[in-house]
Amino acid sequence: MKLRRKTRYWKIAPGSGGFLWVEQRDNACIAIGWGETGDLNEYKTEEEIKRRFNQIDWGSKTTPRQLLKFYREVQIGDKVLANSGRQIYGVGTVTDDYKYDADLHYEHKKPVRWELTFWKPLDVEELELPEELTRRIRLNRTILELEPKEWELIDRVLYHVENPFQGLNNFE
After folding, report:
1. CA 80 to CA 90: how far, in whole Å?
2. CA 21 to CA 16: how far, in whole Å?
3. Mean pLDDT by groups of 10 residues along the chain of 172 residues
4. Residue 168 has what pLDDT?
5. DSSP E strands: which ranges in the chain?
């Protein structure tokens, strides 16, 4: 009998400045870059992924840490806050394992059921969240794990935002 692991909570950017939010929302996923590495399921070990990642000239000092965290740690049942900088785009639940999708701008994806999206992105600075949590949400990271207590605060605030389209899919 497989033990159920505890839900984890993630802040994941749908592209720099959220430019891929609509693509990811419409494709029911959250996806990240570094696609030049290819399908991560084709590597036998984490070391092989790291080796391939480090063979690519990314144009800046970067490590595979965030890519590996996305691939290995974000799992079915985990919660996702689609956020980039000041903007919050949606909240969802991971519904399936990692997939490599060459049809997306960012190829590394996790399927997500988007449970809460907004007519326009929310400005995290305008939400009634503690200053430290607002600072963490605004961090310029592709992926960041949030604490359960942080998620509870975010969840409570977001579900009280006036949203005439709450519960509707593909309202655009």
Report:
1. 8
2. 10
3. 82 96 98 96 96 90 92 97 96 98 97 93 95 95 96 92 58 46
4. 53
5. 9-12, 29-32, 79-84, 87-94, 99-100, 108-123, 143-146
Q: How far is CA 15 from CA 28, 33, 69, 76, 134, in A?
A: 15, 8, 16, 21, 19
Rounded Cα gap, residues 116 and 155, in angstroms: 10
Q: Which tokens go with 90?
A: 């949606």
79: left (phi over 0), alpha (psi -120 to 50) or beta: beta
Identify which of 81, 87, 102 has the alpha carbon closest to the alpha carbon of residue 159: 81
Q: Compute the CA torsion angle 164, 172, 35, 50 (nearest 10 deg).
A: 10
